[in-house]
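tool_log.txt
---
The assistant was asked to compare two proteins side by side. It first ran the structure predictor on the initial sequence, then on the second. Raw inputs and outputs are pasted verbatim so the downstream comparison step can read them without reformatting.
(1)
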Amino acid sequence: MRVALAALTALAVSQGIGRFAFTPILPMMQQDAGLSVPDGGWLASANYLGYLLGALWAVRLSIGASAAIRTGLAVTGLSTIAMALHGGFLSWIILRAVAGVASAWVLVFVSAWSLERLSQLGRADLGGVAYAGVGTGVVVAGAGCLIAMGAGASSSVAWAALGAAALAATAIIWPVFGASAQRVEARAAETERRETDFWRLVLCYGGYGFGYIIPATFLPVMAKQVIADPAFFGWAWPVFGAAAVLSTFAATRAARRFSLRAVWAASHLVMAAGVVVPVALPGLAGILVAALCVGGTFIVITQVGLQEARRVAGPRARALIAAMTAAFALGQIAGPLAAAYGVRATGGFTGALILAALLLAVSALALLATPARSPRA
């Protein structure tokens, strides 16, 4: 449980705050910093470019898991606090990219470390606890921004508060990633790279990156377009995070009954439905349904996808996890740019949402086309 809770906290900091805090803060930055939707797309894509570079870097990084995780967490907290400084748009671009690199390091190394440690301890079932960290971080960030908006605080205050929370959480779990954090070797999975299954997982995970990132980036903005009162539109992101937390535990039970890959494919289909709901059901109700469907599956896909990577690649799982994370990051880069282009061309998100749903559905079919797999990770 100590390993699982440390992993939960690390993912809450690196993903929930380092990556996704920008989503609920974006409406605040639009209001007090004059940020446009295309500007938001560029800042989001800078973070995802950093995430891509961090994932590729992690493949060849020769330092131990302990040093990589600690460095990533510290950089995440510091770069989040630095967003509170009014250094201009270029400095924000750089900071979001740096946070992306750090987030990728933490995800890759914590995933490889925690899954291996929990398996050794005979508690692989606690993997769901670890991945609940992402949703936990999303809830914390969303609730914090909701409180800040209600109090009339600026986006700078929100960035500073979340950065301080990230550093405090890092200090608490710092000792866990010490001597017990085994070194994870950066050896290329040469055999697996030649296998169709390896690339199938990589491509499907990349489709997931594109599919979820548009609502994950712009959901509060879409909600704000419907209703301006933060007491209402601000709830879209906490709902998203709460669904993410609860779904990880349901996924653990489902994976015992079905295969990891079946749960993964089903999650893609539910997410596809959630992504396209705001098109078919305009208004706040459609956005909240989207928050539930997308929030309730995006961490499940990470959880079962990376467990499936460990099952497929075995002791060389880190190379596959890093490749999947890199593909995911490419999808994330393309998603906000496609959304920003759609907003400029049509004034709305409809085209980008439909494209995202189609990619998710196609990748689900690709996963289901493979033989059933054992749920054992």
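(2)
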Amino acid sequence: MTGIRTMVVAGVAAAAVVTGFAGTASAAWEPKQPIQILVGFSPGGGTDIIARNIASAAQPFFPVPLVVVNKPGAAGSIAAETVKNSKPDGYTLFVAGGSESVSMGNHQKLGYDIRKDFTGVMQITRQRVAITVNDSSPWKTVGDMVEAVKAAPGKYTFGSSGAGSTYHSIMLVLAHEAGLDMKHTPYQGGAPSLAALLGGHIDVTPLAPEESASVYEAGRIRYLALASDGRSPALPDVPTVQEEGYDVFVENLKGFAGPAGMPDEVVAYLHDNFKKALESEAFKKLADKANLELQYRNGEDFMGAITDMYNQIGTAVK
């Protein structure tokens, strides 16, 4: 297995280790100007909602404004590259952990290497991804799908939220693990992919439960398995792909990262104060309202998880 490190909020002591440095809120550094949090997508999307909710909850713990700045384009990679080229002074962060971090660099050349060009601050949430079929599909399990696809190589089609996206890469990892030959049909996001699945234009597609909950609850789609390292408390009857015998663990993580070379005391200050917000009742209420699943990792483990996923996808893509 890839050795991804998981630490959930409730099970982690307050004095977490960040990038090898035991941070305390009394670190010598303190911000003197506004801190920008770049979001690589348009306002109103899932990443933007997470950034604005945590910034709102964290503001009481910071002496300077926390400013969320949307810098959409190239599936989040424009924001990431902007931060990579910024001064490592703690004043420019971005929401990392999505396709721009774990997937795209395995499909195309980017202006950064997620494994070495950034400093992790903290992971905030996880978004699980389900291997999903239309309810009319004969496939009840991942095993059913694998058996059918192997019996007819090249016949079946999977959708995704775009070429090079995390959803695309999840299916490539599964295909690599199970030895499958399927056709890929990319769409401009999860919603069009879901529509194609409902319309019978594709046989299977990865989807986040949050974006497909209404049709799932209506019985129009079926989750075969989650590409997670454990079952979801919200979907206890849905197994993981790992339980089905295939070593697949790719999720959409969300957290903060800054440029490489940020001083330990800067990382510690940012980590400790954002962690106060993460543990606050104010943020928990916001997260519950937005249907966010919280998951804490310190900065080092957050970037370690991203690297593990990136490498897993890289093995499948080669």
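---
observation on (2): Residues 244 and 310 are 22 Å apart (CA to CA). The radius of gyration is 19 Å.
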